[in-house]
Write a structure and sequence with these properties.
239 residues, alpha+beta, Immunoglobulin-like, four-stranded antiparallel beta sheet, three-stranded mixed beta sheet
């Protein structure tokens, strides 16, 4: 009984739907517009995209294109960086190797020595650059009077602020105190022989020694000392 009622209700619903569609079609025909097509659930389901997939909107695609262009721009920037880094192969001016100035030696100089009236018991040693390039007169001359077994000490307070550099033809000076003015020195002796040597930047020997004629006997004692090389004669005779 219940099934019979359900069938009648379903038939009635179908007939009502059919009547509604017929009425709509008749109305459309009377107005001159095409009747709407019946809804096809299967066709709509076929047109629906599969679950989990979607097409990127046109605006998103545009963004991807812009991002690609941005990436290309970054690559260009990277090549520019590589170019800049390549240019750093050249050393900065501040770090470029500076020309090395050689030491003054017996090979590129001439030496002369003279007695001076003031201060008493002093001599002046002059070195002149006879080479074609500049040379550095490092530290002080090493002296050996006669048969002395050691070189005299340097007068420390005579140290200049910078190494003396001699251009070709220029001279530097060193003062020599041969003996004490008051006779307080000991182990004195007289000689006519003097050997002069040069030093390098490491305070080692530079070149060979030079025999410098004294012209007359010179008396030296335990107070014998020498100054650093000086650019001015007066500075060499102040000590």
């Amino acid at each position: 009984m219940r099934n019979l009622r359900f069938r009648r209700a379903a038939r009635t619903s179908v007939l009502g739907t059919a009547a509604l569609i017929a009425a709509l079609s008749l109305t459309a025909c009377q107005s001159g517009e095409p009747a709407p097509a019946a809804f096809d659930a299967e066709a709509a389901a076929a047109q629906k995209p599969a679950s989990g997939t979607s097409e990127a909107p046109a605006s998103d695609t545009g963004k991807e294109t812009a991002g690609g262009a941005g990436t290309a721009g970054t690559t260009g920037s990277g090549s520019g960086t590589a170019k800049d880094s390549g240019s750093t192969d050249a050393k900065p001016a501040s770090k470029q190797q500076k020309p090395v100035t050689e030491a003054c030696t017996d090979a590129n100089t001439e030496l002369a020595i003279t007695s001076v009236p003031r201060p008493v018991n002093h001599m002046l040693l002059t070195v002149t650059n006879t080479g074609s390039t500049a040379c550095n007169a490092y530290y002080y001359p090493t002296l050996r009077f006669g048969e002395a077994q050691s070189v005299p000490p340097v007068i420390e307070e005579s140290q200049p602020q910078a190494v003396v550099t001699l251009s070709p033809g220029q001279s530097a000076y060193a003062g020599i105190r041969t003996s004490s003015a008051d006779g307080s020195g000991t182990d004195g002796y007289s000689t006519t022989d003097l050997e002069v040597g040069f030093q390098n930047v490491d305070a080692g020997s530079a070149g060979g020694t030079v025999s410098v004629p004294l012209g007359e006997e010179v008396y030296v004692d335990s107070t014998l000392a020498v100054t650093y090389w000086q650019t001015e004669m007066d500075d060499a005779l102040m000590h």
